[in-house]
Amino acid sequence: MESIKELISLVESSTKEENKKITEAYDFAKKAHAKQLRYSGKPYFVHSYETGKNLALIGMSPTMVIAGLLHDVIEDTDVEEEEIKEKFGDEILFLINGVTKLGKIRFKGLTRHVESLRKLFIASSQDIRVIIIKLADRIHNMETLQYVPEEKQLRIATETLEIFAPLAYRLGIGVLNRRLEDLSFPYVYPKEYERVKEIIKEKNNDNIELLKKVNQGIIKRLAKEGITNIETSYRKKGLYSLYKKLERKNWDTNKIYDIFALRIIVPTVNDCYKALGIIHGFRRPMPGRIKDYIAFSKPNGYKSIHTTIFTKFGNVVEIQLRTADMHREAEYGIASHLVYKSKAENNSANNTNNIWIKRLLPNINKFSENNKEDKNKMSTTDIPIWIKKLAESENDVQSQEFIEELKKDFFEHRVFIFTPNGDVIDLPEDSSPIDFAYAVHSDIGDHMTGAKVHGKLVSLDTKLQNGDIVEITTRKEITPTKKWLEIAKTTDAKRHIKSSLKKRGDEKIGY
Ligand code: MN
């Protein structure tokens, strides 16, 4: 059951004082939700507990675990903000409010503009930690989706698959990405799910046996060459990820080599390349299957070397080589940078942003110390620029810059505007209703008479803001004017306006 002992044991290196706070949050949430039940019939608190636990499991700080325990108290109970602030402080309140606010974003028209929705989501969250809490919350909601009324299941699962799982992927949090995908998969694509499950089942036993044998051979060989401090594991591809790959390969399982893979964790980056050389020296690699994601990491920061070799048993096996740091990064991504390390930091920083930033720093320093021999290489290629910048200076101006940088990264100076039926259009900052109208459809742009933002009439040169719901009125006789050209911001709108002006200009000249 939901034991506080278990939860505390899962929180990494927390102090007595922190454990006391976690216990307080535990008791507080339990009491606050006491009268509520989940669809499953279980006490609502189970959900609060599991959310906190999910956060502890990915190595989040006591602060995050506390925020996880309390994440629904403001929205779902009559607890007031003041009380949270008094008992748990500004930072916790900030995180809970962030999660509550995110919960209010409604996803409509899911199939369109999902990328924009993801960006909107990030932009509205203010702090990456809020998203991570939301992901932990979503995991438990997905784990209990079978109890939710059937007509809601598909929407929630689709939302998870289209928005939350990709978000986890973008943030590099592999564990959450896989979990969210595999939990939604059976609801969104039930038939395909069954089919993929069969395929995996068929392959299961053979592969594990094979991997064990291959593993033994490789460990022996690496040891002979001096690489001894290694850890290996078998990784099974997530069902949804396998499904996507099957779709790409026309369901030909013989073309998929990484349903199972052998993962080898070695001490240093040099060891990764050395091990690759050793393995290729005694097992022939499959051409075109060697991928150096260390030199060329994936956009979400994923690093590893992948190769597929022919085994002496006449099979092929994918091997993934990485260091422990890369492994942590691949599983926990941005979350791994938030992992709580230094107690001293916690006491000195009061500002929310600072606490977050400063927690990143000890990690960076540790990172470069551990990899002295590769230091130059590391500092230029392995650490994301925004983290590197941060490591160079600890002052607050830089920290602020860092946050902006991070926001820009996801947000790229764009605003996200809703149509009245919930579709999202993303436009450059300072766009006008004219730009919006043309982005929806050129016909709507060409004949617009006016615009309403949140139901109120506005002038055509209004600068649209993130989250505005914009309604355009049109009339067939209306055509663009020169004035519009001055207002429009997007090249698309300008192009249409010009062409319309020109057309009518030509007509006049022609007659
Ligand atoms: Mn919740």
What fraction strand? 5-15%
Largest sheet properties: 5 strands, mixed
Please give the share of residues in helix. 55-70%
CATH topology of the largest domain: Hypothetical protein af1432
Counting DSSP H or I runs of 4 or more residues, the number of helices is 24
Q: What ligands does this structure carry?
A: manganese (II) ion
Multimerization state: single chain
Q: In a nutshell, what does this entry contain?
A:
With 511 residues, this protein is of the alpha+beta class.
List keywords for this structure.
10% strand; alpha+beta; Beta Polymerase, domain 2; 4 domains; Hypothetical protein af1432; three-stranded antiparallel sheet; 511 residues
Explain what you see:
This protein has 511 residues and is α+β, with helices and mostly antiparallel strands. 60% of the residues lie in helices and 10% in strands. A 5-stranded mixed beta sheet has the order 1-2-5-4-3. Strands 9-8-10 form a 3-stranded antiparallel beta sheet. A two-stranded antiparallel sheet has the order 6-7. Helix 17 crosses helix 19 and helix 21 crosses helix 24. It starts with a helix and ends with a helix. Bound molecules: manganese (II) ion. The site of manganese (II) ion (MN) has 4 residues, from loops.
